[in-house]
Write a structure and sequence with these properties.
alpha+beta
């Protein structure tokens, strides 16, 4: 069984790479062809595709309209995805920390609250570069990074806020030494692809037809960020033929839950990073890739392309706050790892050799801290961890 499992993975990897080469340009929004997409379980998007991209002329109605029928909206807006990007006026971290500073060599950084704005500045004692923060990226559980505009270009702040130290430090991925110039100290200049990618994964409808449209974005990932623009769906559900259309299965909206495990991994991985994406990231070697959960889980011995018990949503409800208690996930593990006589219709896997049935993830999904991140990330490469072993890539 082990050999078959690995051969299947290799085959799919080759197919995935072939699909990515052929479909390099972004796909149109899946909501435009939800019926045909839902019919096939698997899903292999183009490398640049993001579920939040808006097709031309798409109309987004907002969570308040979704709430008329779907109770999930009561909690979705407060999830980490729902708060993946915040307008500065509403940023809880910036409001709670009106004055922040950080020293790096001859450069002094500051973030100062001024009314509903926060101004980011860096000075060498003689000259100063400053700009209002446009958006705060991230909820701050690990860190929060800022996007600025200076002289017509977008910049990623060189320093970020970290909750563990309640202060500023180098942005993850930025050089950890003093800059060579004031402009370099200010932040990293973002090219067009960078900007679109960042806003795509932190906001809804920020990109349409491969063009950035910040005037139309909705901060954070909303219901329509994953399910697509809701205009056609709402109109269909309110039409006189509602009962008939529901019976036919046509809903005019994307439901990622229809995908098989690998399809779900590709869907979530479009932002959280798939195996194929990480292979193209030269800087993603070693412990830094622990935060790319879809990539990490692919290496797990128990990962199965079809078995939904190992899919992203088997453990995480995207409509609710992520559970932090290790014991919450025990039932998820036991759904697969139980004695054969317990399961009648599903495959079973070996039970814990140590005889434990509680806090499975604390042993089999260890936490790692990326240097400078001030936060420990749970490794989704599920395995038997041996003492002193090197971090598996």
């Amino acid at each position: 069984m082990k050999v078959i499992h690995r051969v299947t993975k290799c085959t799919v990897i080759a197919l995935m790479l072939g699909v990515f080469v052929v479909l390099w340009h972004p796909l149109k929004s899946l909501s435009q062809s939800s019926q045909s997409q839902s019919a096939g379980k698997s899903f292999a998007p183009a490398m640049e595709w993001r579920p939040t991209h808006a097709p031309a002329n798409a109309k987004y109605l907002g969570n308040q309209v979704c709430a008329e029928c779907h109770t999930q909206t009561e909690t979705q807006h407060s999830t980490p995805m729902g708060k993946a990007l915040e307008a500065v006026a509403e940023s809880g971290i910036l409001k709670a920390n009106p004055k922040l500073s950080f020293k790096s060599g001859n450069y002094l950084y500051s973030i100062t609250r001024q009314g509903n704005q926060s101004v980011y500045a860096v000075t060498d004692g003689t000259e100063t570069l400053s700009a209002p923060i446009l958006y705060s990226f991230g909820q701050g559980k690990a860190g929060q990074t800022y996007v600025l505009e200076l002289r017509g270009k977008y910049y990623e702040s060189r320093v970020s806020f970290y909750n563990e130290i309640t202060g500023l430090d180098y942005t993850l991925g930025a050089p950890r030494e003093p800059a060579k110039s004031l402009l370099e100290a200010f932040g990293r200049a973002m090219d067009s692809l960078d900007t679109k990618d960042c806003f795509s994964c932190h906001a809804t409808a920020a990109v349409s037809e491969r063009q950035l449209q910040l005037d139309k974005l909705t901060p954070g990932i909303t219901c329509e960020g994953c399910h697509g623009g809701g205009e056609n769906h709402v109109a269909l559900m309110k039409s006189k033929s509602e009962r008939t259309t529901r019976g036919s299965g046509e809903m005019a909206i994307l439901n990622p839950g229809h995908f098989d495990t690998e399809g779900m991994t590709q869907f979530c991985g479009s932002c959280h990073r798939t195996w194929a994406q990480v292979q193209l990231m030269k800087e993603a070697r070693g412990v830094v890739n622990v935060r790319f959960q879809p990539y990490r889980i692919f290496g797990s011995k128990c990962y199965d392309f079809d078995d939904k018990r190992i899919s992203c949503t088997a453990c995480h409800n995207p409509h609710e706050e992520m559970k932090q208690e290790a014991t919450f996930y025990d039932a998820k593990c036991i759904a697969c790892h139980r004695k054969p006589e317990v399961a009648v219709t599903t495959k079973t896997y070996a039970t814990c050799k140590a005889g434990k049935t509680r806090k499975c993830v604390s042993c089999h999904m260890p936490e790692y801290e990326i240097p400078g991140a001030h936060h420990k990330f749970t490794d989704h490469w599920i395995r038997i961890v041996t003492p002193g072993e090197a971090y598996p890539n």
